[in-house]
Amino acid sequence: MTLSTKPLSGMRQRLPNEFNIEKYVTEILSLSSVQAGFQEYDGPVIEPLALFAAKSGGELVGRQSYCFTDRGKREVILRPEMTPSLARMVAAQGELQLPVRWFSMPLCYRYERPQRGRVREFLQFNLDILGSESLSAELEVIMVLQEIMNSFKAPSSIYKIGWSSRRFMSDALSRCGVHIEIAQEVFSAIDKRDKMTEEKWANFLLGVCKGDSVLTGKVVSLVSVESLSDPWLVSLMAESSAFEEVVKFNNLLLGLGITSAVFSPAIVRGLDYYTGIVFELMDTGGQNNRSLCGGGRYDNLVGLFGNKKISGVGFGLGVLTLTLFLETYGLIPNSVKKASPADVYVAVASKDAVISAGLLVTSLRSHGYRVMMDVSGKKLGKQYKEASRYGISYLITVDFEEIDTGKYKMKNLLDGSVFTGSLDDLIGRLE
Ligand code: HAM
User: Fold this and answer.
1) Fewest CB atoms within 10 Å of the CB: 33, 128, 153, 283?
2) Atom 13, ligand 1: which residue's CA is nearest?
3) How far is the CA of 315 from the centre of ligand 1 (A)?
4) Is the pLDDT reported for residue 307 higher than 80?
5) How confident is the model over 316-359, as pLDDT tens digits?
């Protein structure tokens, strides 16, 4: 039997070029977090199922999870996200000084249908603040998100941060006449709005609203509102503290000039634990139609561990989703896409030259240069071709003449010029 050369569907493997790109993306994400005073943490890949069953929501745990019984007969899950683990870690700290500002780059697992931007094993950058109830926390995480997009040189015309509030939407839906019993179903219908045509969605919503077309019409009007000063909305939400909070948050965003953040009442987020402001980062073009990032405020997660209430706010951002977005708009620099693995290639003319070549290589490496030595034993012409194929800038050949004289020829493969000198001269030249 021959084995397949493919990995399991949706599982990731990256060739060196892809790995380079991923590293470029994750390094910018980490750097932006560190610059904003966030500290890195990590948690276990395998977690108790109960941790996620409690709050993440039926769809994620019931239909998309990798769960199994381990050899100790424990029900466990490959983490589909990081937030419940983070909540547990913060709950366990006890005396930890709040608020904490933490970030992480976990591998997560979801049994989703593999498609553009959605796979079964993925890196998800997480950035959260726990222990602050102030809207400044929401503002801060959105500021970091904005800073990340700036670091990738993404102009604000190609993305938007759609935001709304769960608390506001609960109140608004109730004022529209949505009964508490169907509120959760209506939320989840709103979350599916972008996944269906307008007509199909309106029919779906009508079903959820038990055929009440007046109620359905009101919900459609609510999610279609584009401005917080919309007169219908203002009158619907008279004297609502949740609406006041949304208006206040909008003013904070305006004050900071974050024009990419747009009030979008249709954004309610699929996960059950959100309680306040929620947001998603979307591509405004047509090529990446799934969210790049999603997050918001969650008030009750840490309370699951018996602690007093600790409110959290943060977001998760898919590294693959973001990379596809950056590639769509040509925002991955060529220097990253075509990065060469070494600065210098040392070609070895014969077996007898291996020791001298090795000594030269060791010396160059000890001076901080990335040096690739031939290990193929092929003819020099083939070794030169290999150096060019890797895009390496400098080539040094070690043959008898070089061993005898201690002088080496170093060819600049980019412009063809040749420099001859001792090891010290070569190092001086490289510098
Ligand atoms: P989420 O919306 O489920 O939120 O995921 C956040 C992001 O992770 C998505 O916008 C997407 O970019 C990426 N992502 C999700 N599923 C996949 C997949 N199957 N393949 C590739 N990328 C994917 C959460 O997970 C929340 N825990 C985020 C959060 C942190 N909220 C507060 N703090």
Assistant:
1) 153
2) 318
3) 8
4) no
5) 999 999 999 999 999 999 999 999 999 999 999 999 999 999 99
Residue 55 has pLDDT above 80, yes or no: no
- Tokens describing residue 44: 């276990």
User: Do β-strands 121-130 and 371-373 pair in parallel, antiparallel, or remain unpaired?
Assistant: unpaired
Q: How confident is the model at residue 423 (pLDDT cuts 50, 70, 90)?
A: very high
Q: Annotate 48-60 with b (16+ C-beta within 10 A) or e (fewer).
A: ebebbbebbbeeb
Residue bearing tokens 């593999």: 114
Q: How far is CA 210 from CA 169, 181, 182, 192, 314, in A?
A: 20, 12, 9, 17, 35
Kind of pairing, strands 418-421 and 394-398? unpaired
Q: How far is the CA of 280 from the centre of ligand 1 (A)?
A: 10
User: Is residue 315 classed as helix, strand or coil in its secondary structure?
Assistant: strand
Q: What is the CATH number of the domain that holds 389?
A: 3.40.50.800
Any atom of ligand 1 within 6 Å of the Cβ of 276: no
99 preceded by cis ω (within 30°)?
A: yes
How many angstroms separate the CA atoms of 24 and 15, rounded? 14
Question: Cβ(57) to ligand 1 under 6 A?
Answer: no
**Domain assignment present for 10:** no
Predicted confidence (pLDDT) at residue 95 exceeds the cutoff of 70: no
314 lines ligand 1 (CB under 6 A): yes
Q: Give the three-class secondary structure for 264.
A: coil
- Residue 277 Cβ contacting ligand 1 at under 6 Å: no
Structure tokens belonging to residue 382 = 């083939």
Q: Are 304 and 85 in contact (CB under 8 A)?
A: no
State the average pLDDT over residues 267-284. 92
Contact yes or no for 409/429 (Cβ under 8 A): no
Q: Whose CA is nearest to atom 2 of ligand 1?
A: 294
Instruction: Give every CB contact of residue 142 below 8 A, 6+ residues apart in sequence.
Output: 161, 163, 253, 258, 261, 279
The reply to whether 408 and 322 lie within a common domain is: no
Total number of domains constituting the chain: 2
- Domain boundary among the residues 314, 334, 354 is at 334
Cα(179)–Cα(166) distance, integer angstroms: 16
Is the minimum distance from the CB of 59 to ligand 1 under 6 angstroms?
no
Q: Which residues contact 312 (CB under 8 A, 6 or more apart)?
A: 83, 86, 87, 90, 128, 129, 130, 131, 297, 298, 299, 301, 302
